[in-house]
Design brief:
heterodimer; A: mainly beta; four-stranded antiparallel β-sheet; 1 helix; disordered C terminus; B: alpha+beta; seven-stranded mixed β-sheet; six-stranded antiparallel barrel
């Protein structure tokens, strides 16, 4: 099970959190079109690479936060735990 | 049977002072404590333990350990017990599997006569057509399926789970694993060592006196530095960030248990698994691997045969020859390194009587021991992204030097990494343990830094050390897979080398295809014994090399896990209100409602309905979700969450509101009262309470972090009681202080705060879910029982009585109030429920606004409101017929065909109206009042019903609740 780096609680089992989905802007309800709105509701880029995601720390601090995850390799950017020397993306 | 047990020998693991009686196929037999089932039976001279899966050939001991494919046994009500591993217990009832009517005479062995007919893909090819015969095929085949028998009457067992957070997990307790664990613990790491067998030591346990002493010393050292050792346990899977599943099998600790461990570093040290050789007759009882023969002789003092041929290509085979000679077996040592090759084992009735060598030599023997090479169980490394690479010179696979993204936290040591003397293996293990501990320390530091509330990490981050271990060497080993004769490659699945060649010729020429076509590697041994032989046979058949063919994918679980251990125990909290004990005392019939245990009724729900309609009743509605909302932007928050308007709600009033998701689907509903200028108390449905809090937090934290508003869940802070019925005001007048209950002063849909039965700070709102004059009291939770009892005492002369969930459901249905999630589903947009009047499209923003605008005003290129189904009240023509909920409603079209146009969402018998009443969702074309509907009952019968003009079956104008 993936460790998700909550900025408040530190790395926690992904089962302790909820993946809300890819992070994107909410269209303006006054001017939006059906196509744009439904893309916001249902579509994800789901790239085989890095993407921005919102997570909810369900069993921890109860905060929503944004992080970046590599969806093919299941790594987080600037991971606080779990990556070896040869693969770390730490600055 | 003649006894094969030798007199007591040094190193044996049995306790001859403790005999254990058990039964084998109904006969009384006995063994000793420390025996496995198989060693005890082998000591009695038993040589045949099972019949093979397809051909029903007699099978005997091959490895005498967990992976032995031939000794799966039924023990009592437990099927598929690994007899080579499971320790003997007194009273066990052991029977052979896959043999009918008996092991000696197996009727199904007739299938061997038509062996060709059962070649690879036989099932696929034969039972395809005609399809209508499949049910018959299935029945016949099921009788021939291998495996034990499940007893449905078995007593259920509770399986626990455990979570562990060691710095280092070492998988494998042989010399290298023990040395690694001890070194890691000495360096300060918390270490969990997982050993597959019943005791640590690995192959040292059945080795020489010096080897046994070393094994014991290594295990003692590990224990003395605090290593936790799990025996009879296996790391069965490894996932991201070293999330490990460890199964602890049945034993003194209780039923099989799953340990979920998060290790900072995993050390993989499983050793090597001996590989069988494929030749004619290689599955005969009496053909054994060197490790099997040594284990029988040295651990359990069982002489595996009288006259043995030991065909050896390595030191382990040579040791087996020496061990057997020491056990008094006449041994003919045939050296594979000198070019001698076994091509056949022959005999009658499945037994071994003679061994044939490639040069034509025939050797009389009742036992053939082979030592043909090793398989590296790289499973856990593969799960970490490390590829196995074949080394022809060493005749086995090794983990690739550089692995996947997390390779730095997964290390290997011992035989899986290379060869060496015992000193070298222990030295490599120690270096691995030190490296693992140092890397774990770095990760622990990072963990502390990354955890905001943890104590500040002291000092700089320790270096994540590079791997400077001296690699183990690799011994030369001849490549020995098949001498040219055909034999069984997969003994679990009865797949022969001929099957594999035929499969390859039919075009299944990749290892993943041939695996699925022939089921090779898919049986109980799961590839431990047969994967490399499968690959080698395929390479030979396709004219390629083992490297080119590659291996199949090793997936978790590495060893079997029972479903009970996976399921474990549910940790679902049960919630009860502060009034629970009073309900129990009042004789409630409980019902589970989400997490809550609530009174369904107190004996007679229909009488409870009549009492509320005639007098007054009280119901515990504490599970109702309650949120305290405060702050200058509280009104903005409500306007965002609800489809209706909130700005002009006066202090002291409550309003009904509906929340929709961003797709316009109804999410929740409830009333919210304005207690002060910037202070609201919101109620949600009982089942939606938790989700609504998260929903609101999401909006506040992600879209409007600038809003000054606090939302506090207070569901458990209040005991909530609804007082309903025409006499409810009279009752409350006797108990309420500080609030004017006069209907002109405290109107329908208003909220007041005051004292009830002497308890101040109670919130009261006048609403009417039941359709009666009613007051909902929110009392500080600890005073709930006091207020509940006060209501019952003060209203005795008024006929007050508690009512349960069922009475409330009947009354709300009489009033036509829908329940979110019952009368609506995940597709029900707000207009379906008749909420057009509530939705205010002129608001600047609220959740779901665009979808509701398109739903009400039409969407360019798509339907408008006419596309949505409608929620309607329905009354069956037969007043005594209550259609079960979820019954379909059908209509016959112009083509004469019936089609589904809706469904019953709620139905009850109304004691007030003395007839059946329903809510239903139907298509717009069938939603007009007085439309006749056809309901399909669960018995298939069609019954008619009529659509009503109003959702409320009773008091549609609401005169009672406004009174």
């Amino acid at each position: 099970m993936l460790l998700v780096p909550c900025p408040h609680c530190g790395p926690r089992n992904s089962a302790d959190l909820t993946l809300v989905g890819e992070t994107g802007p909410r269209p303006d309800p006054a001017t939006t079109t059906p196509g744009e709105w439904r893309a916001y509701l249902y579509e994800e880029e789901n790239p085989a690479g890095w993407t921005r995601e919102t997570w909810y720390c369900r069993l921890g601090c109860g905060r929503f936060f944004v992080t970046e995850r590599h969806r093919a390799e299941n790594r987080f950017r600037n991971p606080p735990l779990g990556a070896g020397d040869e693969s770390s993306d730490r600055p | 049977m003649t006894s094969a047990r030798m007199p007591a020998r040094p190193g044996e693991v049995i306790d001859r002072a403790e005999p254990l009686a058990f039964t084998w196929n109904g006969s009384e037999v006995s063994g000793f404590a420390g025996d496995t089932i198989v060693s005890a039976l082998a000591a009695r001279g038993c040589r045949v333990f099972s019949r093979s899966m397809k051909y029903h050939r007699p099978r005997g001991i091959l490895t005498a350990d967990y992976w032995d494919p031939n000794t799966l046994l039924q023990v009592g009500d437990e099927p598929n017990v690994r007899g080579g591993h499971r320790l003997l217990e007194a009273g066990m009832q052991v029977t052979a599997q896959n043999a009918w009517p008996s092991l000696r005479f197996d009727a199904k062995a007739l299938t061997a006569l038509g062996g060709r007919a059962l070649s690879a893909g036989f099932y696929y090819k034969t039972f395809m057509r005609p399809r209508w015969l499949w049910p018959l095929y299935e029945k016949v085949l099921a009788r021939f399926a291998p495996g034990g028998v499940i007893d449905p009457a078995s007593a259920p067992r509770r399986h626990e789970k455990r979570y562990a957070h060691p710095d280092v997990v070492v998988a494998g307790g042989g010399p290298a694993g023990l040395a690694a664990a001890t070194a890691a613990a000495r360096a300060g790491a918390g270490v969990l060592l997982v050993e597959h067998e019943h005791a640590p030591g690995g192959h040292l346990r059945w080795g020489t006196k010096r080897e046994r002493a070393l094994g014991a010393a290594l295990a003692d050292a590990a224990r003395s530095v605090g290593v936790e050792i799990l025996t009879d346990a296996t790391v069965v899977g490894r996932w991201e960030d070293n999330w490990l599943a460890i199964v602890e099998r049945d034993g003194a600790g209780g039923p099989e248990r799953l340990v979920k461990a998060r290790a900072k570093v995993l050390v993989v040290a499983p050793g090597l698994i001996e590989r069988p050789y494929v030749f004619a007759g290689n599955d005969r009882p009496g053909v054994m691997l060197s490790q099997g023969a040594r284990r029988l002789a040295n651990l359990w003092s069982v002489r595996p045969g009288d006259r043995a041929v030991v065909w050896s290509a390595n030191a382990a085979g040579d040791a087996a020859a020496a061990d057997l000679e020491a056990a008094g077996v006449a041994v003919e040592h045939v050296d594979a390194r000198a070019g001698h090759t076994v091509v056949a084992a022959e005999g009658r009735r499945g037994a071994v009587e003679r061994i044939v060598l490639a040069d034509g030599t025939r050797l009389e023997a009742d036992l053939l021991v082979t030592a043909a090479g090793w398989t590296a169980p790289t499973s856990l490394l593969n799960m970490a992204g490390v590829r196995p690479v074949y080394d022809a010179a060493a005749a086995r696979f090794f983990p690739a030097p550089s692995g996947g993204p997390e390779a730095g936290t997964v290390l290997s040591t011992g035989g899986i990494s290379g060869d060496g003397s015992l000193d070298q293996l222990v030295g490599h293990g120690e270096a691995t343990g030190r490296l693992a501990a140092a890397r774990a320390a770095t990760l622990a530091h990072r963990l502390q830094v990354a955890t905001a509330w943890a104590a500040p990490a002291s000092g700089a981050e320790p270096l994540f050390p590079t791997d400077e271990r001296t690699p183990l060497g690799r011994d030369q080993h001849p490549e020995l897979y098949r001498p040219g004769t055909d034999g069984i490659v997969d003994l679990s699945e009865d797949v022969s080398s001929r099957d594999l060649r035929h499969g390859a010729a039919e075009g299944f020429d990749s290892v993943e295809l041939i695996k699925r076509w022939t089921t090779a590697t898919m049986g109980s041994a799961q590839g431990k014994l047969e994967t490399v032989n499968t690959v080698a046979t395929l390479a030979e058949a396709t004219g390629s090399t083992i490297s080119e063919v590659g291996t199949t994918t090793w997936r978790p679980p590495y060893a079997p896990v029972t479903l009970g251990a996976l399921a474990g125990r549910m940790f679902e909290p049960v919630r009860i209100s502060a009034l629970h004990d009073l309900h129990v005392a009042a004789g409630m019939t409980p019902i589970g409602a989400g997490q809550w245990i609530r009174p369904e009724h107190y004996g007679d729900p229909e009488a409870e309905v009549r009492n509320v309609r005639a007098n007054v009743g009280i119901i515990d509605v504490s599970p109702l979700g309650k949120l305290d909302i405060r702050g200058p932007d509280a009104t903005d928050l409500l306007s965002l969450l609800y489809v209706n308007k909130w700005r002009r709600l006066a202090v002291g009033s409550v309003r009904y509101g509906v929340m929709c998701a961003e797709d316009g689907v109804i999410l929740d509903d409830g009333v919210t009262g304005r207690l002060g200028e910037d202070h609201y108390l919101m109620s949600t449905t009982s089942s939606g309470a938790g989700a609504m809090e998260v929903w609101i937090q999401n909006w506040l934290q992600t879209e409007h972090p600038d809003w000054r508003v606090r939302v506090t869940p207070v569901t458990d802070a209040f005991t909530s009681v609804n007082v309903a019925g025409p006499k409810s005001r009279t009752l409350l007048e006797r108990l309420v202080d500080g609030v004017d209950l006069d209907p002109e002063a405290f109107k329908y849909m208003q909220v007041r705060t005051g004292a009830v039965a002497g308890v101040s700070g109670c919130v009261m709102w006048r609403i009417g879910f039941t359709g009666e004059l009613s007051y909902e009291l929110h009392v500080p939770a600890g005073y709930g029982p006091h207020v509940w009892q006060a209501l019952l005492d003060a209203g005795a002369d008024l006929g007050v009585a508690p009512f349960g969930l069922e009475a409330q459901r009947i009354m709300r249905l009489e009033k036509g109030h829908f329940i979110v999630g019952q009368d609506t589903d995940a597709l029900t947009k707000a207009p379906t429920a008749g909420l057009e009047w509530l939705i205010k499209l002129d608001k600047e923003d609220f959740t779901g606004l665009p979808e509701l605008r398109w739903a009400l005003e039409g969407e360019p290129g798509a339907g408008g409101p006419e596309a949505l189904p409608r929620l309607v009240a329905v009354q069956p023509t037969d007043p005594g017929y209550v259609p079960p909920e979820a019954c379909q409603i059908v209509a016959t079209g112009s083509d004469g065909k019936e089609r589904i146009v809706g469904r019953i969402t709620s139905s009850r018998f109304s004691p007030t109206l003395e007839r059946s009443i329903c809510l239903a969702q139907v298509e717009v074309t069938h939603a007009s009042p007085e439309t006749t509907l056809t309901i399909v009952g669960t018995d298939g019968r069609r019954r008619s019903a009529v659509v009503m003009a109003h959702h409320a079956h009773f008091d549609p104008d609401g005169e009672r609740l406004r009174g």
